[in-house]
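Throughout our pipeline, every protein is held as a single compact record rather than as scattered files. The remainder of this section carries one protein's record, kept here as part of the documentation.

===
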Amino acid sequence: MRLDVVTIFPEYLEPLNVSLVGKARARGVLDVRVHDLRSWTHDRHHTVDDTPYGGGPGMVMKPEPWGEALDEILGGADGAAESGEQPVIVVPTPSGKPFTQELAVELAARPWLVFTPARYEGIDRRVIEEYAGRVEVREVSIGDYVLAGGEAPVLVMVEAIARLLPGVLGNAESHRDDSFAPGAMADLLEGPVYTKPPEWRGRGIPEVLLSGHHGKIARWRRDEAFARTAANRPDLLERCDPAALDKYDRATLQALGWWQGTDGRFWPSGQTVEE
């Protein structure tokens, strides 16, 4: 997979040289290219921003350097089509669609991603409109808060995407039971995990994990996932599909204080459902 990142702070992306992503780059699994946007400016101050039309606080990133940068990276207007690799431009912005595990899986299947982390009040809207007419553009938010720039979201998204690629994780099955991962544990947070020693500071580990009984261990992990999800993300349980729950799941939820409505869905104790 090829990843391009255009930024005015290339040094912010140094973490892409360490840990799993850094190792994947070294092995050639990831081709990461970080570009300095100021390389496409032509004044002595390397200006990348200006005041917004219509007034208001803050500055807006100018379209000219972004246009020149993206044209060169994409190989001109027709370069992507000629190469046979269709890139996806990913625009980190708090006004974008939520970045989810599902979206990470989708983007991990694409051969080429171009990230455009902005600063100030964002990028002149015409840049987004220009390239949406050429390639696929995704405006993505990592959460309901505002940061000083889009570089941190890029680091978050790259790590979430990269770890899904074959050859990045040491154990290819490691992400199967992740929180939010598609499959049997979808819509549940991952439960607690333990390792050696069996006792630490007077604290042991659940006996079931030492039993060697795979069925009981799987049930314990699912029950713990329900408990953690009910405590930290009840919204996930409220929208889960009742058809995906077995009788043991229902018993666990009831023990946690949830009740089943006439529509089959579960709700926290004391919450009323509007018809």
Q: What stands out?
A: The CA atoms of residues 197 and 204 lie 9 Å apart. The beta strands are 2-7, 31-36, 49-50, 60-61, 88-98, 112-115, 136-141, 258-260, 266-268.
